[in-house]
Amino acid sequence: MRRAIRDQGLSTAFLVIFVAALVGQSFAGFAATNEELAGHGLPPVAYWDFVSSSSFLVDVAENWQSEFLQFFLFVAATIWLVQRGSPESKRPGDESVGSDEAQSVGDHARPGSPAWARRGGWASSVYSNSLLMVMGALFVSSWLAQSLGGTVVANEENAEHGAPPETWLQYVTSPDFWNRTLQNWQSEFLAVGAMIVFSIFLRQRGSSESKPVGAPHTTSAEEPA
Asked: In the chain, what are the domain boundaries?
């Protein structure tokens, strides 16, 4: 049991942090919503009504889709783009999807290789791109959830102000939708870019996201120190 906890420590820690943050967001949003309702002389909503509302869905999905987009683009970009000196990058000259031999695919599979990598053909092709496919699907799903929930919220606000309802297409082409969306995207791209550049010159001893402390600044992830 102790070994299993140790071996899964990173994913377990972030799962716990994620759940704690999501629950915290739900209670903070619940309190803020009821404060706003009280300010307008309206009755409060119940907690479960709030967390199942389109408003809460939009706030959650808005952040999720930007995170999955960030990783989708980063994984795709690191196939063909490099950054000399960054542990987040392959070494210059290795820009490619790699040969079957280098990737241990098909006839070049090792004893411990995943079954789909050993099979070759379409199975290996799908598995070879499975990370991008899943990240892309999660991005599209969360973006769609955000847009559908946002349409409901926008129409609730329109009804309060006596304005006509919007269609989904009208909402996803509105300045309000893209203002909220691009606020999240730009912050994610800034964070990734900062990590790539900072990791060239800065170190964190013991972290897999950092080069060894004494490694030259020009050393990339897959180059010997």
From this structure: 1-52, 54-96+124-225
